[in-house]
Amino acid sequence: MTPSTHADPATPADSLAAATQLSDTAVHRDDANGSRVTRRDEILRVAAQLFAERGFHGVGVDDIGTAAGITGPGIYRHFDSKDAILAEMLVRISERLLAGGLARVEEAAQDPTVALAGLIAWQTDFALSNPALIVVQDRDLANVADRDRRQVRQLQRRYVEVWVDVLTRIHPGAGQVQIRARAHALFGLINSTPHSAGELGAEEMSRILTNMALAAATSH
User: Fold this and answer.
1) Domain limits for position 120
2) Considering the domain boundaries, does residue 4 fall inside one?
3) What was the pLDDT predicted at 14?
4) pLDDT of residue 210
5) pLDDT score of 1
6) What per-residue confidence (pLDDT) applies to 21?
7) Are residues 123 and 188 in the same domain?
8) Is the same domain home to 54 and 131?
9) 6 pLDDT band (50/70/90 cuts)?
10) CA distance 118 to 120
11) How far is 107 from 162, CA to CA, in rounded Å?
């Protein structure tokens, strides 16, 4: 008698496991811009919200899994640990800010006034659209491994240099110490959004921040 070529029928447990694995890896949703958001992206999004609300040490892997709509163990199909989630989150933030800043400067075609306006608009839009990420970036860098921290710091320094270069062209007579202080003051102003937005709508808050940042950036 030859062995059967038909697979054994799947048990309910097998079906549940397969469905769970598919759910844990499938594209989860579209974002507001119509871009595809993977399960990995969704984990990062909900983790940022939880870290911002409770602090990194106040959140467990099971909390992140519940918020993302998957089991806690399902998280480990995407990330080795909670630390790895935070590290990728901070690296991604820094990469996005740098890429966006470079794009705004390139679009300005060597006009420093246009470049400055573009940088301020970019940072303001990012801060208003991602308040949880701004909080985590400001507060939790010390919680990642040294290697990841160095990578984030390197990306952050490159982003600061984009601003420093533009501000130097706006204020050609100023020293580098003053220029860097001005750049960091602008970041502090714009990134205060998660703490100061209150009941203002995004459009009104954007207008206020943009006007204040432009005034601070161009004053003598």
Assistant:
1) 81-220
2) no
3) 40
4) 96
5) 41
6) 41
7) yes
8) no
9) very low
10) 5
11) 13
Residues 134 and 194 in one domain: yes
Q: How many domains are there within the chain?
A: 2
CA distances from residue 186 to 54, 96, 136, 181, 216 in whole angstroms, order as listed: 27, 18, 18, 9, 7
pTM: 0.82
**Would you state the structure tokens that stand for residue 199, as one six-digit string?**
């009941």
Backbone angles phi, psi at 171, to 5 degrees: -125, 70
Predicted pLDDT of residue 220: 84
pLDDT at 17 over 50: no
**Would you say 71 and 20 are in contact if contact means Cβ atoms under 8 Å apart?**
yes
Buried-state track 50-82, b at ≥16 Cβ within 10 A, e below 16 = bbbeeebeebebebbbebbebeeebbeebbeeb
Chain centroid to CA 68: how far? 17
**Residue 70 counted as domain residue:** yes
DSSP 6: S
Of the candidates 98, 69, 71, 68, the one whose C-alpha atom is nearest the C-alpha of residue 162 is 98
43 contacts 64 by C-beta, under 8 angstroms: yes
Is pLDDT at 22 greater than 90 in this prediction? Answer: no
CA dihedral 61, 67, 68, 72 (to 10 degrees): 30
Whether the predicted pLDDT of 16 surpasses 60: no
Contact predicate 113/29, CB 8 Å: no
CATH number at residue 36: 1.10.10.60
Domain of 181: which CATH number?
A: 1.10.357.10
* Both structure tokens of 149: 């921290």
Please tell me whether residues 90 and 75 are part of one structural domain. no
Rounded mean pLDDT of 11-31?
Answer: 42
